[in-house]
Amino acid sequence: MKIALPLLIAAIAFCGFSFWSKLSSPHVSLYEKTLFSSGAPASRTGAPGESNCTSCHSGSVLAGAGINELVLVDGVDTVFNYTPGVIYKVRTNMNLTTSKKGFQATVLNSSNTFVGTITALTNTLKNTGSSREYANHKGTSTSGATPYWEFQWQAPATDQGAVIFYMSTNNTNNNGSDTGDQIYLSQHPFNSTAGIESKTLGDFVNVYFNKDKELIFKINQASEENLEIVMLDMEGRIVPISFYNDKTTNGIQGKIISKNSLINGTYFVHFVIGNNTVSKKVVY
Q1: Which residues, including other chains, have CB under 8 Å from residue 55's CB and lie 6 or more apart?
Q2: 254 has pLDDT over 70
Q3: In this structure, are residues 184 and 169 in contact, taking their beta carbons and an 8 Å threshold?
Q4: Which residues touch 200 (CB under 8 Å, ≥6 apart)?
Q5: Secondary structure of the chain in HEC code, one letter for each residue
Q6: CA 194 from centre of chain
Q7: pLDDT by residue (tens digit) across 117-133?
Q8: Is 102 exposed, middle or buried, given 0-12, 13-18 or 19+ CB atoms closer than 10 A?
């Protein structure tokens, strides 16, 4: 008995050490599954200098444009530019059908420095790392039935020019393992209302429905610029579209075709023109 007792104590200590080693290891899917269902570790958004969810999940990295949704809400209004110092709700979601999902987001300026302050709301949590703040899903908000995630962002007190929200989402196959997931990465730019270009450029952007219910746009500027267009409904949901445009020395013009039938109501069309952002309201 005197010999067995030390052996028993040693065995218990070894097992405890083994358990702690597995619990602390970042590469054991069982423990990751338990931990990460309540928010990913910091620095997984795919932003400059960061990894993404595939550092822990064995899945594919896919383009998140049209899948990842992120809008700024000021009170009840969706906005496309930020005003320094103002507090916004940031509403995020995945535009697809899934049984289980997760996300992480952060926001950086052109120097890749985190700007503003993130505060978690009911269905999100916040963590920090490498001088950046992150909004994440939480354990009670990973169901596919969760309509969206919301967190609060207070814009920086001083004008930062264009800022970009970096977002990584995980469409998990819910197979009890870390394999076979789909990771979507996206970037969501917003200009400051204090920027001269972002305030004046809107005067040169026109968008309207013609008699055939086609949405026509024209951007009257001399130079050619890269162009991205996003359409949102009043709830801040992305309306899937395709757009056709011609670039000319006298400006950019074309038409937007909705990929699903529009219902009567108000829509917002968000133009990213080069490094500038302009939003227009249209009624269908």
Answers
A1: 44
A2: yes
A3: yes
A4: none
A5: CCCHHHHHHHHHHHHHHHHHHHHHCCCCHHHHHHHHCCCCCCCCCCCCCCCCHHHCCEEEEEECCCCEEEEEEECCEEECEECCCCEEEEEEEECCCCCEEEEEEEEECCCCCECCEEEECCCEEEEEECCEEEEEECHHHCECCCCCEEEEEECCCCCCCCEEEEEEEEEECCCCCCEEEEEEEEEEEEEECCCHHHHHHHHHEEEEECCCCCEEEEECCCCCCCEEEEEECCCCCEECEEEEEEEECCEEEEEEEECCCCCCCEEEEEEEECCEEEEEEEEC
A6: 23
A7: 999 999 999 999 999 99
A8: buried
pLDDT band at 16 (very low <50, low <70, confident <90, very high): very low
Band (38; pLDDT cuts 50, 70, 90): low
pLDDT of residue 176: 61
Q: What global pTM score does this model have?
A: 0.60
